[in-house]
Each structure stands twice: as C-alpha cells, then as structure tokens.
Write a structure and sequence with these properties.
By secondary structure, the protein is α+β, with helices and mostly antiparallel strands. It is 14% helix and 26% strand. It has helices at residues 19-23, 49-53, and strands at 6-10, 29-32, 36-39, 59-63.
Length: 69
C-alpha cells in the first residue's frame, strides 16, 4: 500500500483509551506508557479510521508536514 500525503495527529487531550489502536488497520497507532496515543507517520496512510473511532474526538487527519499538495 502506498503511503499517503496525510497522517493522523493526536492532541494533548488524549485519554489513552485505545480505541484508535484497535481501529487502525496498519498498526500505525499505539498508546505510549498508558498515557496517550502516538502515530507512526511512516506507517500511517491517513485513512481516518482512528479519527472516527476516537470517543474523545482528539484525533484529526491532516497533510503531512512537508508533503506536496
């Protein structure tokens, strides 16, 4: 699968519930030390499944930094 020009971003309000981890089909999201979710941008294709799964609505999908339009 080709890596996209978009990636998921997690805000500081993350409650580390893990819903995004379960929703990510590529395993690009993990919970760091039970504190907050982190996204591996090298694996994320920007599909938005984690964003839709987040009950706290603290994940957004945006253009990767430095990505051409």
């Amino acid at each position: 699968m080709t890596r996209g020009k978009r990636t998921a971003l997690v805000s500081r309000e993350c409650v580390a519930c893990g819903c995004c981890v379960k929703a990510c089909p590529l395993g690009a999201v993990s919970v760091y030390k039970g504190l907050y979710a982190v996204v591996d941008e090298s694996r994320c294709v920007g599909c938005g499944k984690c964003e839709k799964a987040c009950p706290a609505q603290v994940i957004s999908v945006a253009a990767k930094e430095g990505a051409a339009c």
